[in-house]
Request: fold
Amino acid sequence: MCGIVGYIGHRPCIQIVFDGLKKMEYRGYDSAGIAVLDNGQIALSKESGKIDNLKPSIAKLPQGATVGIGHTRWATHGLPTRENAHPHEAEHLALIHNGIIENYKELKLELINQGIHFRSETDTEVIAHLVSLELKRTPKPIEALQKVIKRLEGAFSVAFIVDSIPDQIFVAKQGSPLVIGLGDKEVFFGSDITAFVNYTQKAIFLQDGDIAMVKADGITLWDKTGKEFTPKITHVQWSPGSADKQGFRHYMLKEIHEQPRVVSATTQALVKDNKLDPTALGLDKIDLKKIKSVHIVACGTAYYAGMLAKYFMEPLLGLSVNVELASEFRYRDPFFFPNGETLLMAISQSGETADTLACVKHAKDKGCQIFSICNVAYSSIHRESHGSLLMFAGPEIGVASTKAFTSQVLCAYLWTLGAAQQLGRVPTVELDAALQDLKTLPLYLDQALNAEESIIELASKLYQYPNFLFIGRGMSSVIALEGALKLKEISYIHAEGYAAGELKHGPIALVDKQIPIVAIAPHDRYYEKTLSNVEEICAREGQVYGIGDDKDQRLKEICVQVIPCPSVKNPVFQAILSTVGVQFLAYHIAVKRGTDVDQPRNLAKSVTVE
Ligand code: M6R
Reply:
């Protein structure tokens, strides 16, 4: 995790690096630091806690400096203290690092035996000292970096400045993301493009093993074999401002409200002349006819998107679909049909989640076809895949995933419809009906968003309860899981999600007046069954809050309150609509409890470590 940024150019760099760090804050936020290079001297400011804590000390840095690096940390080795915050210094240099150095203990011992004094508990400081020692042997920092990198095991992206080299920054990437942004006589870099997209949309996505010498008027790159190469420059689509709050109190709130737009953008990109576009769906990159089974791997909310996908994928493709947590899948011995007959589908907003990436690499080695649904172009998972569908969600900054979930579900659904069509498994009328319903989904999402006022009121009644239960059947059972995850991660309230039919196998013992139960009960094929489960709860004096059609008298009678959610025929779109209610509920409860909604404790947006 952690976010790194850097700037070299003609402008004073401190504010640019600071702003870049604020954009990277989603990656970790327990301490931060900035180092600048000015007049042959490195000046440094670092603090524990949020990036804003840096404000007083960066005011004391040389304000005219035009070369700077910055880091926001998600602690892996050592507490989130000032001493452990990056940049880390060694003789003549300051260095930042994202990732984990697995063999740092051996290296540290070796350095201590050479008389090196360590000021932090981090693995990063080892790299700083190793580079500094190499610089005593060679005047060429790139050579020093190449040598040091060969000794490091693990995943990392690093950047450093050297006091005697006023016009260069040195960077390397191995396993953790690093993107360079090219401006006019200025160069930026960051863990992702949001670090600099407000300044330039010209980006170079470094590959594993790449190292670069960054100067204001350009960069020089070497690949993992040490060969210099000319990089491919990508014009990124994300526009300036797309990573800002745009007047909303939190990113999460903005992102919940963006969902109708995400659906429209997805439709626009994937449906041409009322037909699914197989190329835009990435279907041309996969040999569908070969596939005998599908594994979907993902983590957290993306895993729930995968669970939902199973509901439509199995009947539409006529294949068995296994959905599994990437952290489990990667360490077991799953069965794969040989020669591309198994499709592994990875779902990941960031495209960098370490466990999901490990599954992709493993399955690829075993000869599976790899397809991914990611939000971040050129992310590691995107690049490792044979075929991919890039989501149209735009940057998601809030740690709690909202619009990305909707986008993942929708992309998986449209991909499946497209695949089913190619396999001749979906009648044209069914397909046309789905595409017709898709057109109206943004309008229904707008209606679902209108429930916010009533949810704010409900949140103010419920926010002090210590436990919650979410229930539903069919796809709504997955929304129940997602609702519980959303609530616990941003409000720190204990919450469980259960398939309503499972209640009587245990969780019904929890039911009393003290545990609000949220029942997701749309008018679908499970409706009667769900209502019976709600009745069973009411018979035990449980208090149930429904998410469903507010014209549904039966639901209204048995629930304390119903969060209104429009009813639609298409079960996938219904699931997307129901999700808005659980997102808002979690958000407004968290706001009432005064938690840090966008950056909840202990979490980071992109989980690039195991
Ligand atoms: O970037 P990814 O989609 O791979 O991330 C997966 C999970 O870490 C992520 O969905 C996480 O569970 C969210 N914080 C949930 O809101």
About this structure: The chain has three domains: 3-243, 253-425, 450-593. The CA atoms of residues 268 and 392 lie 10 Å apart.
